[in-house]
Amino acid sequence: MYGLVNNGIRTFILDSHGEATWQAICDKAGVTDEEFENMASYDDGQTYALVGAVSETLSLPAETVLEVFGEYWVGFSKQTSVGKLVDQGSETLIDRIRGLDEMHEMVKTTMPHLNPPGFDFEERPDGNHRLHYYSSREGLAPMVVGLLRGMAQDSGVSVRINQLEYRGKDSDHDVFSVRIESAEASSAA
Ligand code: HEM
Fold first, then answer.
1. 183 pLDDT higher than 70
2. C-beta separation of 148 from 161 below 8 A
3. CB-defined site of ligand 1, < 6 Å
4. d(CA 91, CA 109)
5. pTM higher than 0.70 for the full model?
6. Quick one: average pLDDT of 109-129?
7. For the chain, which terminus, N or C, has the lower number of CB atoms within 10 Å?
8. Separation of 98 CA from ligand 1 center, angstroms?
9. Residues 9-68: pLDDT tens digits?
10. Phi, psi at 61, each rounded to 5°
11. What 3-state DSSP class applies to 41?
């Protein structure tokens, strides 16, 4: 993955736990760089090793680490130069979810080696929408849950998310139900 993702993990840990914890995580992960070039490609193994080391160091399940990081990523990525290029801030949550593939396609114009996820959103009249997540990578479904929570928070709504199907178990991809529970925060206030 691009170094931007590893730098996201780094900034997340520095913000929440400080330099010493980050050093310990790098040692455990066998990562010597400690800082990454945002626009350079790194082996996916390095990102997985970092997530594993965060999980061990903070005594949290890896799924929780991925979920919390996904939530963090929404704010973090927005502040990067690529994020500013693809700002979706003024769209509704549903439009943002619908636009995820197009957004990653735009990211790809500046990050040509991007291997992005794919999403299919089925909007349902009863409000129990379905989100299909496709990836060439394994194990990142919890990050999608965090990303959706982060996007919802950013859009001023709350969502209920449940994973309905699991890649490798009952499907060839992950499927989530997404229900928007509250209207825009501004109208509720
Ligand atoms: C401005 C915002 C964003 C930027 C710049 C961005 C960029 C990236 C980058 C660089 C990667 C690593 C892939 C690679 O290097 O090959 C990635 C992966 C990913 N992105 Fe985004 N992204 C953004 C927002 C989002 C949002 C809002 C979602 C919400 C669902 C999302 C879902 C994912 C997922 C699930 C992956 C993991 C890759 C996989 O599943 O194979 N991203 N993105």
1. no
2. yes
3. 1-2, 4-5, 74, 77-78, 82-83, 86, 100, 104, 107, 111, 114-117, 135-137, 140, 143-144, 147, 151
4. 21
5. yes
6. 97
7. C
8. 14
9. 999 999 999 999 999 999 999 998 778 999 999 999 999 999 999 999 999 999 999 999
10. -60, 145
11. strand
What does DSSP assign to residue 167?
A: B
Handedness of CA 92, 175, 120, 77 (dihedral sign): positive
Supply 87's token pair: 């700002």
Closest ligand 1 atom to Cα of 88:
1
Find the helix or strand (DSSP H, E) in which 13 lies: helix 3-17
Tallying the residues shown for the chain, one arrives at 189
- Where are the strands (E) in 26-154, listed by range? 118-122, 129-134
Secondary structure class of 161 (helix, strand, coil): strand
Q: What is the Cα–Cα distance from 138 to 172, expressed in whole angstroms?
A: 11
Token pair, residue 30, equals 């066998």
What's the pLDDT tens digit per position in 147-176?
A: 999 999 999 999 999 999 999 998 999 999
